[in-house]
Amino acid sequence: MLLLLACVPLDTSIETPADPCALGDGEGAVSTCLSPTQTDAYYADQGLRYFDTLETGFSGEGGPTYDAWVARWEWPPWLKLTGYGAEDMKTVDAIIRLLPTTVPERDCRTFTTQPFARCRVSFLYEEHPDQPCPIYEEFTFDDAGEITFIEAWTDTAALRPSADADDLWAEGDEVHRLSTKLPGLGNAEGQIDLDSPWMQDAAAADPDVADFLARANDFYGMWLEAYEAAGPDVFVEGCSG
What we know:
Low-confidence stretches: 1-16
CATH topology: Nuclear Transport Factor 2, Chain: A
CATH architecture: Roll
Strand order of the largest sheet: 2-1-6-5-4-3
Number of strands: 6
Distance between the termini: 68 Å
Shape: globular
CATH class: Alpha Beta
Strand content: 15-25%
Mean pLDDT: 90
Number of domains: 1
Radius of gyration: 20 Å
């Protein structure tokens, strides 16, 4: 019997694939598994359209093309998950626009690897006219050209995603971002499945993914909690770095 068992090939089909693009037969792939499907101009324009929606004078027309479950993550001192789902994103942004705001300085560029669109901008708030707020923001896309994930940092040396002070567009190896760690953003639809085994495994292995998962499962509750905890100094902290 032992000899017979020794001759039976082992079934390794249940092992976790070493290739991050093969997780869940591709359903759990990470965003870097996708290649651009749109023109360079398209990706940069989507970034510009996004900042249109954050200006107080936004008409409601001509915004970016969101996936139905687009998510936005803003690193501290901002409030982490500040949008989950296209409709929730629009609701939160309408609240943001109540504070008179413009984004007069914008530099959006296209990259051949995810995130395909990356922008360096400056917000100007009417309540703080002498303190422009520098922001670096990245946009991840699915194959249809829809934005699936938005990630933002204060654009100062201490808070940018790259440990290299000269890497202003986060192209190097020493970059700390969430979008490339979330399984599902790299399938054709860029769909995150919060309950999938690959998401659960990623959350168990990475505290940033675990934090995202917890907030996505209770978006409004945790966003309101973070908003109340931030207090009145969040603008000064976030914009000064």
